[in-house]
Amino acid sequence: MSENVLKVENVTMQFGGVVAVDSMNLEVNVGEIISLIGPNGAGKTTAFNVITGVYPPTNGVVYFEDQKIVENYPHGKMRKLYKTENNGAYTHVIEPTPDKITRMGVARTFQNIRLWSSQTVFENILIAKHCRVTAGLLSATFRMNKLEERRQWEECDELLRILGLEGVRDELAISLPYGQQRRVEIARALATQPKLLLLDEPAAGMNPQETQELTAFIGRIRTDFKLTVFIIEHHMDLVMDISDRIYVLDFGKLIASGTPAKVQNNQRVIDAYLGVSEDA
Amino acid sequence: MKTNRIPQSFKIAGAFLLLLAVVLMLDNVPGISVMLLIVLRKGAIYALVAVSMNLLNGFTGLFSLGQAGFMLLGAYTYAILTIPVGNQALVYQRYPNGGIGFSVTESLGRVLGQQPGLLLGVIICLILGGIVAGLFAYLIGLPVLRLKSDYLAIATLGFAEIIRAVVQYEKLGPITNGSNLLSNFTNFSNFHLGSLKLDTVMPFVFAGVCIWVITLIINSTYGRAFKAIRDDEVAAEAMGINLANHKRMSFIISSFFAGISGAMLAMYQASVQATIFKAAMTYEILLIVVLGGIGSISGSIIAAFLFVGSSEWWLRFLDNTTVLPNFNAKLLLAIIFAAVVVGVVSLVAYKQNKAQKGRSAAVGRGRKLLALKPSGVITIVVGALVLLGDLLFLISPDLQLPLLRSGFRMVVFSVVVMMVVLFFSRGLMGDKELPDLFRTRHKRL
Amino acid sequence: MSRILPYLLGGISVGGQYALIAIGYTMVYGILRLINFAHGDIFTAAGFFMVYATASLPLYLSIPLVILLTIFMGVLVERAAYKPLRSAPRMSVMISAIGVSYLLQNVMWYITGGLAKRYPVIPWISDSVTVLGYTTKRVTIITPFLTVILVIALVILIKKTKIGMAMRAASRDFETAQLMGIKIDNVISFTFVVGSALAAVGSMLYFSNYATVTPVVGAMPGLKAFVAAVFGGIGSIPGAVLGGFIIGISETLIKGAGLTTFSDAVTFALLIIILVVKPTGLFGEKPTQKV
């Protein structure tokens, strides 16, 4: 059994003539916490979307636990428009829907919180467990799956406790303050029983104290849930604190990777974030 | 943690049984208005269609306008299967050797005795009607369910029209009787329990059972998945819910029950003809769902009865040319009418004035004497014109009420519907259920 | 050829009428993302307006009056039933459109007492002419030309005038257009003005061919015109026109082949085929959704 949980190989994402992600290569191994950082618009969320199956890549492959889960190559309209490298390296098309990838064990949160507006906090988390339900429509309808239901309810309550949300269990999820909503999103993703957790800007909108709590929390769930975590983030304290390795994206291309210390001192990274002055 | 309270489901079941007892009594006590019974029967049937449409539109967020087509399929399936063999030659006059050559209810009646056989046969045929509708839903859903909401609406509408045309096709006449109507099949009046008539109880029982099943589905994990798809399907997909499968599931379930309700409509009308299952019928169901509240089952049920009651019974008087007995009656009516108009207009103007002034005060602007939006001005103008009309009527020699003639009922009704759509878009119940009204605010799972 | 000719001519004629109605649908959808279900009923109302107008006025006055009344009705519907729901979810507005359609049909039924009315004969366009050995009404020949002229005028309006540019901006990105200072209410009203005017013209051509006017007579042509708009690419005016002609011709040919019951069904079958194969229609483009 290899150590590798996620491998992104030569993934390019092109929208029409715009290259959003350019021949990206990265690896995430078991139990690691990896961060993907870069200026706004660098293509980070697009990368997430490719990994989770929301967009099929224009070119490239994604492996999960050494299995190919996504593959594509430029064909049709894209054949003429394709701009970057590795054209011709791949020949198959594997385009699973996002739910399939989630069921394999990859869960994610969203940059803009997407909780279900008519449901309570508890229900939001419970619904995420639906993909693990073994009962069919008929047995669920006529309540023949009471055991499974009860077990799932208990698991949800447990998740609420771990995330400190028991107090708001029956509140409408979207009525909560922003920080709590983020926690609900994380709980929801955890409810799908993932092996790999993708967090898209989990600390957005949090104050320094909340960010510290989140940092500790991510470390804890890595151990408690035996997770591998892949984070997109802008809060550098969180990133530098918790990451085993960091990848830096700028204009769709990876410009640096390595341990936090290495990346922090990388000139290209500094330039990308601070901008290069014209008459330097 | 368990208290001694009676579970809610038992309470609802009890209430329903009580309702059935009342309806049974109404069926069999002499002197009950026929209109009431008609409204109850048709209301029960429409309640089921409305709930089935709400499942699809309100709970899963799929805007489909194909309901009438599925009702048609259910109705035809049911009728074709239950016409007694002896009557088939008569019904299928235009098509020699038409009809299927047997009747489910008749055959079962021979085996099990007339009433039990009839009942079992009817239940089987209703379910078969639903299955046929569900089957078509599966086929139609394959290409159509991934379309965006407006396109889905038009595509399903289109399919319903196609089904309606195909059923009337001459070549299919031997089975469907082409564009002629089907009749003489088993209907609600064929049932009796001893000497008790069951004409109205039966549709209630069938509709009640079906609605109960739909409620079970909605409150199950699958129902929650449907709601997730409605609220945010991108998130639903990310959380492992396969959109295509679940949308198809919801579509098939909804159509299954629409098929059953179509079959029940056939039983109620004792005849089936493709021309009544037009797009207009789907629009009426949609309006019922909106009136009751998209996302509320009890709302759909209540609205169905209100709708049928208004259009079949209570508003009928608006269609009749009415002649008042004498001048005093006319005076009284004119005064009451004027009072109502003045009251309504003043209320609207007052509320708008208050709101506008509040807004101006918040911004710090000066106070005008009468601050109104254009719609408020229009309301006053229209009110004045209506009052003028009232006055003119009063001084004219006519004793016949103006406006009241055939078709006015539907006009008034359509206006009421528009009012609801524009000003009470959450409908009667919003997305709450009847039991929620008797409980404290928080929903507890 | 001579056997198909009458059907082809008929098809082009009715196709042009569908095209004129379809333009109304496609323009409104382009900006408001709304299927104006009531558009078919506005078309019917135009027919009734003409019937009642010609009862007391001469033709040369009735025609402009009818156009004006139809425009007034279209704008009234927009202001009363669609504007208040502009920020509501899409389903609500569509339900409102269905409600308006329901209301209009019932009002028309009430006013006419359910009796069909005979459309007045408009001289010159109702005259018989002979084309390639086949006799038909002049309206059949005029319709396609008139349609093309009106469409060209419309396209010029959209491409070269300020209001046209505003309409294009609004259909690209509604909110940003508002932020950029475009008076969105006026743009929308103008859209309905144009759509209703074209529907009125279409009604004059249509009812010169099928002279019976009933409250529900506009429902089917309206629906088919919408199919035409989708077929051609919703939001695209040339698409709506092309779609109109294609639908009109196929429908007439099917009728000619003797399968009249299926003529409506075929139109819907075409709709479903295009929705499945190329949902954006012949000339439409597909926007990508940002997640």
Provide structural commentary.
The complex is a heterotrimer of chains A (280), B (445) and C (291). With 280 residues, chain A is an alpha/beta fold. Chain A has helices spanning 44-51, 78-81, 98-104, 121-128, 137-141, 146-162, 178-191, 208-224, 236-242, 260-264, 267-274; strands at residues 4-15, 18-29, 33-37, 59-64, 67-72, 106-108, 196-200, 228-232, 245-250, 253-258. In chain A, helix 4 packs parallel to helix 7, helix 6 packs across helix 7 and helix 8 runs parallel beside helix 9 (236-242). The radius of gyration of chain A is 20 Å and the shape is globular. Chain B folds into two domains: 8-318, ABC transporter involved in vitamin B12 uptake, BtuC, CATH 1.10.3470; 322-403. In chain B, strand 2 and strand 3 (196-197) form a beta hairpin. In chain B, helix 1 (8-28) runs antiparallel to helix 9. In chain B, 68% of the residues lie in helices and 2% in strands. The radius of gyration of chain B is 26 Å and the shape is globular. Chain C is mainly alpha-helical and 291 residues long. Chain C has helices at 5-32, 39-56, 59-82, 90-112, 138-160, 162-172, 174-179, 184-209, 219-232, 237-256, 260-277, and strands at 117-118, 128-131, 134-137, 212-213. In chain C, the strands form two sheets. A two-stranded antiparallel ribbon of chain C has the order 1-4. A two-stranded antiparallel ribbon of chain C has the order 2-3. The longest helix of chain C has 28 residues, at 5-32. Chain C is globular, with a radius of gyration of 19 Å. The chains are: A alpha/beta (280), B mainly alpha (445), C mainly alpha (291). The interface between A and B is large, with 43 and 31 residues.
